[in-house]
Amino acid sequence: MSAGSSVKRLVKASGLRRKHLASLRMCCERSIVAALPHRGDGPKSRILCYHSVGTPEWGVNDVAPTRFQRQIELALAEGYRFVPASELGREPAGAGKRLAITFDDGLRSVMTNAAPILGSFGIPWTLFVVSGWADGEHSFGDGLMMGWREIEDAARAGATIGSHSVTHPNFGLLEADVAAHELGVSRRTIRDRIGIDTREFAIPFGQSKNWTASAAVAATDAGYDTVYAQSDRRRAAGTVARTFITRFDGDRIFRSTLAGAFDSWEEWV
């Protein structure tokens, strides 16, 4: 074996170890935060953010289909009703027991696994797509991401389609002109590909550090009137909070999530 091959194997192994350690840290963190007394406001209306439903490659952001259905059933049993994200985006979530379901990135498993479950319960949902990925400009391999035909099928089935940028960058690090490009081109591409003139945008990664004042101005200039972020208490001014759901969220953690345990928490992976 050559020295170069050995180095590549070590680098790959190191990357896998980091990934596994990050996953372990996330699992422990979610469990601990859910168990601690928290300053949440209790059950209230909130927007839930999912990514994939049955795509293990998506790591901590993948929720198994059986767990996803179980979470829907738990929420309904707790007296929540499901509404479009735009309804909660237009007004403070506040009191009441309404939930909205959103998905980031445009994973194919959302259409194959999550959509039938949501359809069986008559639940509305929103899909935020990365326009470049929908065009096939990614390195994830075949079969992982939705193409425009599937996104159009999702819209026909009742999903609201929003933007999640062109390339999924960290907006906290972008120059103003690059941010404007990501915001404007993604919105125009969605309109050109499937005829939907979206005014909703979800910040990639969604942490408070991933958004800037100049990006907010660019979003308004690009025609967006609703920008979705993460943490209820740490999100940037002018954005709408969402509560991230991870693969580790069994019944106990999910109930704590609905009760506000993670209102100050941001997913960092």
Q: Would you kindly provide a written description of the structure presented here, covering whatever features stand out?
A:
- The chain is of the alpha/beta class and 269 residues long.
- It has 9 helices and 8 strands.
- The protein has helices at 3-35, 65-77, 85-89, 108-121, 131-134, 148-156, 176-194, 213-222, 251-258, and strands at residues 46-50, 81-82, 98-105, 125-129, 160-163, 200-202, 226-228, 243-244.
- Strands 1, 2, 3, 4, 5 and 8 form a 6-stranded parallel beta sheet that branches. A two-stranded parallel sheet has the order 6-7.
- Strand 2 (81-82), helix 3 and strand 3 form a beta-alpha-beta unit.
- The chain is globular and about 45 Å long.
Measured distance between first and last alpha carbons:
34 Å
Helix run count: 9
Largest sheet: 6 strands, parallel
Per DSSP, what share of the residues sits in E-state strands of 2 or more residues? Answer: 5-15%
User: C-alpha Rg, in Å?
Assistant: 18 Å
H/E element order: HEHEHEHEHHEHEHEEH
Q: Please tally the β strands and state the result.
A: 8
Gross geometry: globular
Q: What does the average pLDDT come to?
A: 92
Question: Ranges with pLDDT <50 over ≥5 residues?
Answer: 1-14
